[in-house]
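Q&A log
Question type: sequence-to-structure
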Amino acid sequence: MEIQFVKVSPNQNMTLLIETPIARKKQLEVAKTLIAYHSVYAEQAGYIEPPQNKNAWAKLQMMAGEFCGNATLALAAYLFSKEQPPIFAEKIIPLEVSGTDDMVYCHMQKTEKHFIGTLEMPLPLCVAQKTYMLHDKSYFLETVCFAGIWHIIVPKSLWGEKSTHYAEQAAKAWENQIDTAAFGILIWDETTKELQSLVCVKNASLIWERGCGSGTSAIGIVTALQQKSSISLDIQQTGGIMHIAVDYDKNQISRIQLSVPIAIVAKGTAYIP
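Response status: OK
Response body:
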């Protein structure tokens, strides 16, 4: 099988955009193969599909059906690049995206080396403290639930130097408690504003992402709720800095805006036996 793809780097969260039509029931299996080390290799994959809304440029269907801010901006950057825009050119690109019924509007700007993408993230379905067990110990952790993906926030001070090791164990231990096909365990250092995101797509991948859009949004949401005010944060991740702005009004979150640098790094054909 020959698969046409584009490889895009939103803050080094390497994303495959698959152009070849694949039946929905086979998408997870094909994506799992393509993101593997022995194939194209990436952190995640999504499919470019025709939109139902005539005003959308395209539809992005993620490999697990979740909403992904980084992948959405990656697709917008790719579509914008086809116009060969001059430096500093800007455009609003409307897209349909899995995990939300609303049209998503991506603001793209061409820079000298790459693109800067900004979008309004969907509001969470819920934000709650939930109990999780690990090594016979219970943890009461903030959990942000989006359509298709949950994020569990673990303060870095909780596990210290063992954070990454415990997070990988927790991903296996907590998988059955989570109702969505994808979830993240976010190791958050509030003092240094550093985030490490372990993202699991059930039966497909468990990856320390170098930049996570929905995870960044989850941190912004919880910070705004704790401070009871609007916030604007630069969050340091392995791939660089991602910016999140959250509007807090009348005791609730009213708007979430994510900004990410994006580079298109490859385009070609992959082969699956």
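Response note: The chain is about 20% helix and 45% strand.
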